[in-house]
Amino acid sequence: MRRLIAGTGGVALAVVLSQFPEYAQQYTQRLGGAVDELRVITADFDRAAAEGGLDRQAALDRYNASNDDFLAGRGMSMTATFQRYEMLSSTLAQIEGAGPVERLQSLPAFLDTDIGRRTLEAYKPAVPVTMEGIFYAGGGFILGYFVLSALVRFVALPFRRRNRVRVTRA
Fold it and tell me: Where are the domains of the chain?
């Protein structure tokens, strides 16, 4: 009975962990799309600033120095956009350069972002056919099997002692 329960737990955890590479791939695609769009906005702003004889910072300073609340607000908005572009570009480079274990360690960061939440909301499970997917599925099976096996043994421990005492007295 213990092996059946542990095997079921192993299969369940294998299925769950095998989905991580697919989630990471979908997250990376969404992140890459966001970076690409922010790159277009950044390049357009830099081009317009250069046509006006300014660099990015000088153009932002001009926005921020404006007495017009709308223009000053646009300057703050563009500053935030450039910061987001830098942050997301850095995250994308980090993910693209990470190995399977490093990506798994970064899972909380994947889930704790706007892009991560939207990826999870739109997530479509997939069958893992990559080595990474098989690695996670195998690791999940082994971990699930041993955890549930140990849990069943622990729960059954009081009942085993009673049976040993009865056998010994008889």
Answer: 1-19+129-170, 27-124
- How many residues appear in the chain? 170
Among left, alpha and beta (phi > 0; psi -120 to 50; other), residue 53 is: left
**What pLDDT sits at residue 33?**
95
Query: In this structure, are residues 132 and 21 in contact, taking their beta carbons and an 8 Å threshold?
Result: yes
* Nearest residue to 98 (alpha-carbon basis) of 23, 24, 19: 24
pLDDT digit string (tens) for 88-141?
999 899 888 888 888 878 777 777 688 888 888 888 887 767 777 777 778 877
Q: Which two tokens stand for residue 74?
A: 């646009």
The residues, ordered by sequence, that sit 6+ positions from 22 with a Cβ below 8 Å of its Cβ are 123, 124, 125, 126, 128, 133
Q: What is the pTM of this model?
A: 0.67
* Residues 116-120: contacts with CB under 8 Å, at least 24 apart: 116/27, 118/30, 119/23, 119/26, 119/27, 119/30, 120/23
User: CA of 86: how far to CAs of 39, 82, 89, 113, 161, in Å?
Assistant: 9, 6, 5, 15, 62
Question: CA-CA-CA-CA torsion for 25, 27, 32, 35, nearest 10 degrees?
Answer: -160
